Amino acid sequence: MQLNKFFKYSVLVMGVSLLASCKDFLDVNVSPNSVLDAPIEQLLTSSTVSVGFFAGSDLHRFSALLAQQFSGQGQGATTQNQEYERYNIQGSDLNNVWNLMYSTILSDLELVIQKAAAENSPHYAGVAKILKAYTFQLIVDAWGKAPYTQALLFTANTSPAFDDGEAIYGALERLLNEAIVDLNAATSVKSPGTNSTIFTGAYAASKPRWEKLANTLKLRMLIHQSKKDRAGTVQKISALVGSGVFMESNADNFQMGFINEARRQNPMHQFELDRANQFFPNATLVDLMNVRNDPRRTRYFTPFPFTRPFETATFTGAKSGDAPSFKYSRMHTFLRGDTTNANAVVPAADGSITNTAYTYNGTAPVRMLTFAEYNFIRAEAAVYGAPGDAEVFFQAGIRASMAATGVPTAQIDAYITSNGALAGTDDEKVRAIIEEKFIANYGVIMEGWNDLRRTGYPAITIPSNALVAELPRSLYYPQSEIDLNANAPAQKGGLNERVFWDVQ
Amino acid sequence: MKKVLLGLALLFMSATLALAQRTVTGKVTDEQGEPLIGATVLVKGTTSGAVSDVNGVYKVNVSKDDAILVVTYSGFATTEVAVGTSNDLDITMKEGLILQETVVTAFGIKKNKENLGYAVTEISSQELTTARVTNVTNALAAKVPGVRISGSGGSFTGSSIIIRGFTTFTGSNQPLFVVDGVPIDNSGGNTPLQSGPALSNRAIDLNQEDIESLSVLKGAAATALYGSRAASGVILITTKKGKAGVKNGITYTSNYAFQEVNRTPDYQNTYGQGAGGNYNPTAISSWGPRIAGQNVILPPDYRNKLISQNDSVALTAYPDNVTDIFQRGSNMQHNLAFQGSKDATNYRLSLGYLDDQGVLDNNRLQRYNLGFNATSAITSKLTAGISVNYSHNKSARTQQGNQLSNPLFRAWFLPRSLDLSGLPYKTATGTQLNYDPVVDNPYWTIEQNLFDDLTNRILGNFNLRYQLLDWLNVNYTLGIDNYSFIRRGYDQIGARGGANTSANQSGGILEGRDLSRLLNSNLTLVGNRQIGKDLDLTFVLGHEVVDDISTSSQVIGRGITVRDFRDLDANTTTYVPGFGISQGRIIGAFANVTTVYRNFATIDLAVRNDWNSTLRKGNNSYLYYSVAGTLNLTEAFPSIKSDWLSLAKIRGNYGRTGKASERYATDSYFGTAAPADGFGPTIQFPFNNLPGFTLFNGAGNPALEPEFTTSAEVGLDVSVWKDRLSFEITRYQTNSTGVILSVPNSSAAGISSVVLNAGSLKTNGWEAGVTITPIKTKSGSWSTTFNFTQFKSVVEDLAPGVQNIFLGGFVTPNVRLVEGDEYGQLYGNQYKRDANGNLLLTAAGLPQPSANVAKIGNPNPNWSLGVNNTINYKAITLSVLLDIRKGGSQYSRNLADLHRNGAVAETAEFNRFNDDGTVATPYKFEGIFEAGANAGQVNGGDVEKRVTTEQYWGNGGRHVAAEGFIYDISWFRVREASLSYNLPRKWLDKSPFGALEVAIFGRNLFLNAPNYPHLDPEQNALGINNAQGLEFNALPQQRSYGASLRVTL
């Protein structure tokens, strides 16, 4: 009986204690692993890293394959890069790119802008708006139409309508103007500092660089429109160069550096390790440089066949439709970072080396808009009638690119002597400028393809195995957008649909 | 207060009565008067009882005159006999296969199967251990109508269990496992797509030898009492226990089996490594020259490294170069159990050891089980019990998935002239050597890229039962499932694939520690009362509290300095830690009333309400219910009962179960950013010592409500011809609405999905169990059971504006939910065709891929059938389980690879070379040229374009579209077979043994898959994931055969 009693009381006590604790018992559904809100500083860090990473990832490969700066190769299975190079890029291939742009980069930038307004930190808003404008510029150049005015409203609108590319360009120009005002605000509770991985360091030092970037970005967007409205472009560029500050040296380059730790390295270098023998310098680019005996080749590429010294070696690019092989030059220190075992590399008998023959530190920056490009834009604009001497800017562009590559001054001078003159018709001048810009923009996302669509230079040969024998003029809308966004336009009929600045 | 007093008065009375004991004895016989040995005689409502001896004689103590003895014996109808005043009571038992069969239902409540309004399948210990598999879930294959088991290859990877179709979209469709009334964790079993090994589902910790029976509860009526977690069915396991009245005994079982790859491809051995008819020592394919002993150069890695210093070899075929990679594995088990009872206490103590060595080296699982349970009648009213099962489960596993470190990534199609096993795979310093500079050498990655895990788990419960009144008792069970899971990975320097740590060849170490604790408290009040003469009423009132918390911690270190030194902090240079906690709680209250009228009509009502922590207040309380009924025609109208018809019963039920969301789905969160390329590159934060936060792409939804699944079921149970033929047939329909789903949206919104109550899913199905006993004599019998399963789950609605949802896979192929179509369809590239279905060919006469992906296959089988034959002759028992599956398709990456690389026999069907040595063009794609000079013309006649074998099967030929490698997986297999012999009792009489059984057994002994060449179709790339129908590079399905011994003392 004692036991029975004990049991009865136990049940009673258990029951009572259960009822008493019931009230809070179920309140365990706030994740202990994540936060409901994040500080503006760390949102900006993830944004700048994502922007830099993105510019060396998927969309860089798509655009560099189309522009023929790179070539897709592969052994065994056909690699996706081989397909992309022959213009077999489908909507579903672009889901990841679109997702990374909108719901990783732009969503965080949008939150930085919102928080900056709420916390009275306009300096943050300025930086975020420039990065937002940069990202949207890539979107317009790649797809033409895209969600802008209804985008980034989160759960409030999960099917944003698409805006016209030209309207977005206009909005981006206004956004950049706002950004410059924000950057120069007299008071800002917080200012970006070492938490920005682009133009890192104290705000006092980085602010002018952000402002120069904002103006240079406007310049880039204007030159994109030169074919559509040359007079207007010249007029606007003239006005802009009269009022704004611009990049003045390679120190102003819009780029992001990486560090020598696994999964924190330059994404192009990471890709080489993850997907060996798939992505090689294209013959179009390599041959253009071979003709000029370009000294940048020793940093851009490894020789094939592999010999030392590089200065006297031969460089061989790949092209679409070649038999599967990796007997080509490979990307080198300019994109992958310094090597630690340069002298230890021994080629195979056929002169090839493997993707891991060199140990790179992976710290090369991803370059997004450089001082060299600024000069080439100015040179081209000058040819069209904008202020400045085209040849002076042309040579400055070459010098900037070579200096950033690490070419010694004597070799730069020699190169300028043989290749620095800008002569002939306007078209011949533009061709010379764009060819040099194409070389300088090795590793820069989108611009090679943009210039090719805009000017037709450098002259390329459509791959023999191309799906359609015509250079793609824009990308398909991502399949996810077609599937999930009721307000998305119908999928494009082909890759021949042009973006607004790419006129016949 | 009056009631309490009454209760106390009754307590006194019963305590007094308990003292008046007497002994009843008698003989248990069959209808022919033969003694039945080992029949269990229990005093109803108590734990005291006895087992009949060799003469059929039993002896039990009873305490009151109205005691009832319950006698059970395998193959005979359970018999209840009132004791009355006599002390001598002989009992005659009637043979019967399904008569009076009791099954275990929700909360361990045993119910008479005859009165059940829903289908429950119970599997005995014997059926579970026929083929001595390592993972208990695999032992269910083909044994349960309405259940589909899909193994994913290997000995101890995950196995998916789908009961009566799919009930939810992206959440788990796996059933709840309940052991002795306590829900346990059966997580795990997903196979990663790009890195790491395939892990086991945690039911693998259970030792089948400790399982007395396993009940499969299907449908809402059977599972409603278990609440939210049981929406996909329940696997109810009852462990073996000491039996009241059974003398102390020892049982020892042991087995040893060999394991082999079930099916290996039929290779060609005519053509060597290379492409275009030319030898290439680094090629991965066999499109090289005819093998004729010609001198060829070795792959670069091997030059100057062989002792001979000879860099060239004679081109030779190596027919076994793939099978050499595999080995003959083994499965060894030893189990020792002590059981018995003394006074009012029963106990069982068991020890188990299992050692499973798979068909690839470094795939090994060792499991130690220690179980103890005891039940004691502390007073005549109070019974207390405890059960503790400890398991120590450790395993080593090789890499899986679509990654270069998977030893099978390119191994199935090794170049036919490559002597991989004869060539070294590493240098003296451990650097790998391989013919192919891109992928890891299979031998090297098996040896050097390591993964092992260790699970220490305690499953236990403490239970009390108090007999309040002779018709009413109260039960309390506190159950705990507590385990730690330790994961360790080591990626060697130079590993080319992602392996465990994606260290980009720098080497890496993974250390993971997960802890899981599931606490379950339930209190039930169970009553059984006869009301008048005709009505029998059973009711259950219950309360359940669940608290489930798990923590995971992991550190990945990269950049190894010293080879083979597996210490993360000392030997790696960069670290990525990851920690997480996950907690969910549920409070449930339930009631169940079963009314049986005159033992022929039953109404069973169940209702339960859950309060679930994963939903916001206001939405977190939800009620569901079920009603089930039976009408036993043969009992109701005894006139129809005859020698021919012994049972005819109709049953039906309708019920609804609710399910809450996953945890933490009601809010949107920020966390560490991790931007990723679609091809591998990624950035891990902190970056340069800077943390980075991002808004997660999946948005939460505070307004989430529970999803509900309603189900309706009707069935018919008939037994004829003296029970020689009995069948139960069931038709059911389930309908899930408001399915909780992370609905993808335009990522231009800044988020890429929002959790919503969206969509609905409907399943229609048939299931049937038929048992035929064509022969039944005194010395032997033959019976066959058919288990038929057919169901079709259709996605009726997805979220508004959403046409399909990605479940898993690649850009092409992948598995999707598509509105209006069956669950989980295969999507991928098709061949480009014109409106009339003609192939559109390139100018070279080759097919082309369609621009967009389209449906290319349906992985769901049309039906499946298990046929279990048991033949007894005297002491010999032969048991053969056939597993037949019709329909269902699978995309086979392995078959695609075997063909496009020219490795299998059909790629040498035609001579690849003409007499003059040029490459022959034996194939032609039928179709119309789309481009080129002959555009619009049919391939043939003057404009015929013939292609080479390499072009036909290669990357530009059949391989261009995933459609080309969809195969029908229909199969007929001998799933299990065993032949056992029980030594005659007379031989054992003078030995210490009570019984001795020897057996030989096998699993997957025969396979016929008429539409699936070269490999065993039972493969699944994603393990127990909802996405089924993709196969690539997974561990192969195995065949095993061996012998076993069972001894009781």
Assembly state here? heterodimer
Shape of chain A, please?
globular
Share of β-strand residues of chain A:
under 5%
The number of helices of chain A is: 19
Low-confidence stretches of chain A: none
Helical content class of chain B: under 10%
Arrangement of strands in the largest sheet of chain A: 1-3
Mean pLDDT of chain A: 92
Query: Could you describe the largest sheet of chain B, including whether it forms a barrel?
Result: 22 strands, antiparallel, barrel
Descriptive overview:
The complex is a heterodimer of chains A (504) and B (1049). Chain A is mainly alpha-helical and 504 residues long. Chain A has 19 helices and four strands. Chain A has helices at residues 2-25, 40-54, 58-66, 80-85, 95-119, 122-143, 165-183, 203-224, 230-243, 267-274, 283-292, 297-300, 333-336, 371-384, 390-405, 409-419, 426-440, 447-455, 479-484, and strands spanning 70-72, 254-256, 279-281, 366-369. In chain A, strands 1-3 form a two-stranded antiparallel sheet. A two-stranded antiparallel sheet of chain A has the order 2-4. In chain A, α6 (122-143) runs antiparallel to α7 (165-183), α7 runs antiparallel to α8 and α14 (371-384) packs antiparallel against α17. The longest helix of chain A is centred in the N-terminal third of the chain and has 25 residues, at 95-119. Chain A is globular. With 1049 residues, chain B is mainly β. Helix content of chain B is 5%, strand content 46%. Chain B contains nine helices and 56 strands. The two termini of chain B are 54 Å apart. Mean pLDDT of chain B is 88; it is low at 1-19. Classes of the chains: A mainly alpha (504), B mainly beta (1049). At the A-B interface, α1, α2, α5, α10 and α19 of A face β30, β35 and β47 of B.
Characteristic key phrases:
heterodimer; A: 504 residues; mainly alpha; two-stranded antiparallel sheet; 19 helices; 4 strands; globular; B: 1049 residues; mainly beta; 22-stranded antiparallel barrel; five-stranded mixed β-sheet; 56 strands; disordered N terminus
